[in-house]
């Protein structure tokens, strides 16, 4: 039987062997369930992360004021300010990464959390190793790059940032219009996050580029035709679009 983070079993027994990081990222687990907070924090600490806990948004605020964090694991249903409100409030370039961990597994709640700016969403109960994998993935994605990214690989495709062309593994290339390149880049910048039409409209506008409202749908449709059967773009009804794959940066 796979251990889950709400099973109240010995979650630490599922920990994969891992060397303690020399400078572990600070992670804050925010949940009003004290037993679950302890289980999650203990498991992540056993896997080399620097973890603190908070019971609600007030305690979280005190911890952030005292030194910030690289990542929050945030419950939705908490007394006082709820998790989605916290996500909405923590906007800006310097906000920590956010993984929503909640019993509210409905697609509407998941999409709402991602639309508000959360980096990932995991429904309870969950496998602790899956949570650990997602924590590490978000931390990697948010790490400041030390070299210039020349291309991004996603699935069988590679987007060349310099030539603005899509390449396949067989060496063939597909040219993109300026608007198509800008929209695809915006989606790859925030993988697995929903971008509204207004956000993509802002991204698509460049010098000498005129694009309006529903023309975004046409641009995305053309992109999807070029990507073919392996197209990772998904339409989120009434909200916008998202890329389901996490791109791999390619550096010189």
Automatic annotation (TrEMBL):
Q: One GO cellular component term, please give it.
A: protein-DNA complex
Q: Name one GO molecular function term.
A: phosphorelay response regulator activity
Q: What is this protein called?
A: Two-component system OmpR family response regulator
Annotated ranges, domain Response regulatory: 26-139
Limits of the OmpR/PhoB-type domain: 149-245
DNA-binding region per Swiss-Prot/TrEMBL record: 149-245
Q: Which Gene3D superfamilies match?
A: 3.40.50.2300, 6.10.250.690, Winged helix-like DNA-binding domain superfamily/Winged helix DNA-binding domain
User: Which taxonomic lineage is given here?
Assistant: Bacteria, Pseudomonadati, Pseudomonadota, Alphaproteobacteria, Sphingomonadales
């Amino acid at each position: 039987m796979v251990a889950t983070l709400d099973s109240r079993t010995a979650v630490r027994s599922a920990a994969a062997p891992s060397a303690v990081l020399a400078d572990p990222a600070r992670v804050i687990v925010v949940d009003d369930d004290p037993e679950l907070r302890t289980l999650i924090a203990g498991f992540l600490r056993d896997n080399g992360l620097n973890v603190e806990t908070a019971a609600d948004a007030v305690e979280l605020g005190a911890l952030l004021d005292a030194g910030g964090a690289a990542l929050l694991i945030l419950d939705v249903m908490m007394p006082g300010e709820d998790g989605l409100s916290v996500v909405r409030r923590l906007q800006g370039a310097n906000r920590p990464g956010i993984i929503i961990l909640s019993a509210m597994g409905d697609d509407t709640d998941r999409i709402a959390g991602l639309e508000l700016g959360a980096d990932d969403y995991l429904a309870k109960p969950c496998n602790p190793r899956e949570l650990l994998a997602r924590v590490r993935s978000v931390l990697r994605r948010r790490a400041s790059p030390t070299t210039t990214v020349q291309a991004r690989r996603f699935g069988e495709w590679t987007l060349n940032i310099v030539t603005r062309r899509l390449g396949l593994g067989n060496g063939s290339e597909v040219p993109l219009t300026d608007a198509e390149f800008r929209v695809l880049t915006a989606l790859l910048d925030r993988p697995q996050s929903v971008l509204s039409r207004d956000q993509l409209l802002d991204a698509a506008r460049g010098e000498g580029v005129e694009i309006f409202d529903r023309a975004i749908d046409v641009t995305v449709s053309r992109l999807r035709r070029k990507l073919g059967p392996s197209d990772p773009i998904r339409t989120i009804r009434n909200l916008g679009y998202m890329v389901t794959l996490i791109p791999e940066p390619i550096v010189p």
